């Protein structure tokens, strides 16, 4: 178990002991590996979505197409977002590259709030930042990416 997951579960136990009805949402608990490059994921994997017979739309964005990653020398990574095909809600996110463990929190929140690709796209991200690659990856899910070829 990761420390951040255990910490949240402890908070939930304390809240419930005080009469609140709190629940642990495992699907929004990020999994992080603090290596070089970092990796982080949250929500469903592509394989899990297929096993659950959920129609999905997948988008990938290479960090080599992100200005901040190039500045940092971290262009080896990528972002992969998994959206439900019917409503466009984000179901899973996977990042490998610099600051992956810092960026995954935005996507954990997005999964918990059932944010759609459209909503990620309309979220303004500062430039140049690594996090703007999240927006561009969501744009790729709709064949609207600017810095990579659309499928």
TrEMBL record:
Residues 30-136 form the Pyridine nucleotide-disulphide oxidoreductase dimerisation domain. It holds the Pfam family Pyr_redox_dim. Residues 1-30 are annotated as: Disordered. Keywords: FAD, Flavoprotein, NAD, Oxidoreductase. Its EC number is 1.8.1.4. Its cofactor is FAD. One of its GO terms (biological process) is 2-oxoglutarate metabolic process. GO terms for molecular function: dihydrolipoyl dehydrogenase (NADH) activity; flavin adenine dinucleotide binding. PANTHER family: DIHYDROLIPOYL DEHYDROGENASE, DISULFIDE OXIDOREDUCTASE. Belongs to the class-I pyridine nucleotide-disulfide oxidoreductase family. This is Dihydrolipoyl dehydrogenase. The lineage of its organism: unclassified sequences, metagenomes, ecological metagenomes.
């Amino acid at each position: 178990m990761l420390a951040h997951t255990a910490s949240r579960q402890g908070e939930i136990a304390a809240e419930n002991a005080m009469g609140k009805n709190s629940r642990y949402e495992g699907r929004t608990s990020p999994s992080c590996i603090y290596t070089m490059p970092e990796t982080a994921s949250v929500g469903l994997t592509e394989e899990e979505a297929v096993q659950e017979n959920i129609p999905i739309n997948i988008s990938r964005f290479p960090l080599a197409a992100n200005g901040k990653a190039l500045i940092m020398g971290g262009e080896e990574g990528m972002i992969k977002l998994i959206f439900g095909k019917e409503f466009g809600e984000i179901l899973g996110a996977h990042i490998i590259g610099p600051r992956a463990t810092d960026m995954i929190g935005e996507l954990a929140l997005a999964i918990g709030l059932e944010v759609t690709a459209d909503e990620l796209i309309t979220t303004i991200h500062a430039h140049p930042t690594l996090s703007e690659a999240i927006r561009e990856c969501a744009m790729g899910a709709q064949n609207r990416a600017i810095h990579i070829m659309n499928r």
